[in-house]
Amino acid sequence: GVYEQRERDTYMVRIRCAAGIITPSQLEEVALLAAQYGRGVVHLTTRQELQIHYVKLGDIIPIIRKLKEAGLASLGGGGNTVRNITAQEDAGIDNTEVFDVTPYAVALTNRLIAEDDSWTLPRKLKIAFSGSGQDKGYATIADVGFIAVVKGGKKGFKVYAAGGMGAKSQVGKLIFDFIPADEAYYAAKAVKALFWKYGNRKNKHAARLRFLWQSLGEEEFKKRIQEEYRALKKNKVPLLEIEEIDNTSVEPDLAEKKVDTLSDFELWKKRFVRPQKQDNLFAIIIPVELGFIDSSRLEKLAGFLKSFGHNIIRMAKDQNFLLRNIPGRYLGNIYVHLKSTLEHFNRPYIFDKILSCAGASTCQLGICLSRAAAGAIMKELSQDKGLDLDGLSDIKINISGCSNSCGQHLAADIGFFGKASRKNTRLYPAYNVVAGAVIKDGGSKFAEIRGEVSAKDLPKLVRDYLRQYYGRGGRSDLEGLCRKYKDIPDFEEDKNYYFDWELDRAFSLADRGSGECSAGLFDLIELDLKNIQEAKDLRDLVFYAARMLLVTRGIESKTD
Questions:
Q1: Which of 85, 199, 333, 528 is the one with CA 20 to 30 A from 182?
Q2: Cα–chain-centroid distance for residue 10?
Q3: Distance between CA 80 and CA 164 in Å, rounded?
Q4: What pLDDT score does 555 carry?
Q5: 457 and 368 in contact (C-beta within 8 Å)?
Q6: Can you point out the beta strands (E) in 360-495?
Q7: Where does residue 525 fall: left (phi above 0), alpha (psi -120 to 50 degrees), or beta otherwise?
Q8: What residues contact residue 345 under an 8 Å CB cut-off, 6+ apart?
Q9: What is the band of 361 on the pLDDT scale with cuts at 50, 70, 90?
């Protein structure tokens, strides 16, 4: 759960939180650790975890020890292991769920991380739970996904496997139409055992579970899973110990607060407050811009929330907090506290639903500065007075700094992933544009490439897309917009196109570190392969071939 960052001698500590659960006291401790050992910022991830950035090597062990004292751990946050097991953030309070999947996600976490073979897998294994066929937890695109169903009056799960985003993405495949809920461990264990035995340990770029599906084929993959599953049942391996979660409120020691501006309070409720299936209880979205929150603000928030009990906070996949079990009479208290503590606490939700991975700011693999691009999108949208941004709050805009899909661009309504492009001999930052994702039981599909756009034109393309989407009743000509922004000026005409957002030097791949993929290099190699196919003479052929070899060494040729 500890990763080297792009800045020399700094590290990121990732804190695993099963199903996105954390108590106010634990959250307060994370805020204090970020202030003491990081740079005073905490980051929420798309896998419902927390991260502390810019940690020095000597401070990692003290952080891990203090996390343990708080009942938290970085173990399982990274590496070739079972990663943080996720669940839809409104599990247990959602009106449409079949049953609460949270206890199963927590119990499965506790069981799997205690097993030695969970730490020696060929690559990471991601597990997700959803409470209904709406698949709010993204079970159909996980390595192992569980969707709650009831059959013959008995709780159970549909089970998907071999899904995942990133290199050669694949939607999950249905491997069990129904298993009893108490046998969820058998299904997860069977998949893990198959992965452990037959996963590719020689080539980490082909080591995810979906590659095993492709190499074995559907029939053989399912056959071997069934064999593992039946062996566990035959040997009467213990089932999961499930502890149901009580989603009731705790009466806080607070006086009810009146709000100053009723109209703003009502707008806030419309944007961020949702009724739970429990009578007179509410869930509240706390927006966190791009998942980053100042540790001092977080400490104040956590301290305030302590009076509402332990079962009150979940991290959401969109990098925001979701409060739960709040009695209606205390909504004013929450509003007043957020107004005095957080910036941008009451703006259109579309801003804080924008997802972005770390990108080239800290990640060794990043090609483009995806977070900076997301900030530029927000600025562009905030200046457009003709858009009803509240009416567009359901739109998912996701950005990844490379093809690895850490920003979940493949699950977006409109998404982007960073690439390096060339004009003449100069590199410039760009993005592939994808759209059209559908995530649901039995019908999931990933967003597909519709074109590309330079990093500098990305905000304008998003603005135009939303204008079309709003004006045409949900339709847009995204391919046409990509063509509109296809051509960029020469460097001498406008050098800004050759600088990434918030970067004061020309775009380059030379400082990328080693890591799990080489996406940016492949982009450039494939570009020159295309140039070779169109080469007119031997000189061009030699030039493009030489440039392909040089880029693998991090050397950029400025002239032919």
A1: 199
A2: 22
A3: 15
A4: 72
A5: no
A6: 397-400, 414-423, 426-435, 448-454
A7: alpha
A8: 268, 286, 287, 338, 339
A9: confident
pLDDT digits (tens, 9 = 90+) for 157-216: 999 999 999 878 999 999 999 999 999 999 999 999 999 999 998 888 789 999 999 999
Residue 347, both tokens: 């703006």
CB 395 within 8 A of CB 469: yes
Instruction: Of 205, 217, 316, 335, give the one whose Cα is nearest residue 270.
Output: 335
Q: How many CB atoms lie within 10 A of CB 10?
A: 16
Q: Are 288 and 356 in contact (CB under 8 A)?
A: no
- pTM, two decimals, is 0.90
The DSSP letter of residue 8 is: T
* CA proximity to 13, closest of 25, 22, 5: 5
E strands of 162-312, at which residues?
Answer: 173-180, 273-275, 281-286, 292-294
Residue 153: CB atoms within 10 Å: 5
Question: 278-292, 338-352, 536-550: which range is least confident on average?
Answer: 536-550
- Sheet containing strand 321-327, edge to edge, reads 273-275, 281-286, 321-327, 313-315
Neighbours of 269 (CB within 10 A): 16
Closest to 242 measured CA to CA, from 162, 153, 157: 157
Residues 6+ apart with CB under 8 A from 434: 409, 410, 412, 414, 415, 416, 417, 446, 447, 448, 449, 450
- The pLDDT score that the predictor gives to residue 528 is 82
Cross-strand bridge partners of residue 11: 4, 55
Q: Between 363 and 405, name the one with better pLDDT.
A: 405
Query: Strand 313-315 and strand 154-161: pairing?
Result: unpaired
Q: Provide CB contacts within 8 A for 538, sequence distance 6+.
A: none
- Give the pLDDT of residue 464: 95
Residue type, 338: L
Q: Is 54 helix (H, G, I), strand (E, B) or coil?
A: strand
The amino acid sitting at 48 is Q
Query: In this structure, are residues 361 and 372 in contact, taking their beta carbons and an 8 Å threshold?
Result: yes
Q: What is the pLDDT of residue 101?
A: 98
Residue pair 23/296 in contact by the 8 Å Cβ criterion: no
Would you mind telling me the total number of residues written for the chain in this entry? Answer: 560
* Confidence (pLDDT) at 517: 46
Query: CA of 112: how far to CAs of 13, 127, 180, 183, 551, in Å?
Result: 21, 11, 19, 14, 42
HSE, side-chain direction, 13 A CA sphere, residue 189: 25
Which residues make Cβ contacts (< 8 Å) with residue 30, sequence separation at least 6?
Answer: 15, 22, 42, 50, 52, 67, 70, 72, 298
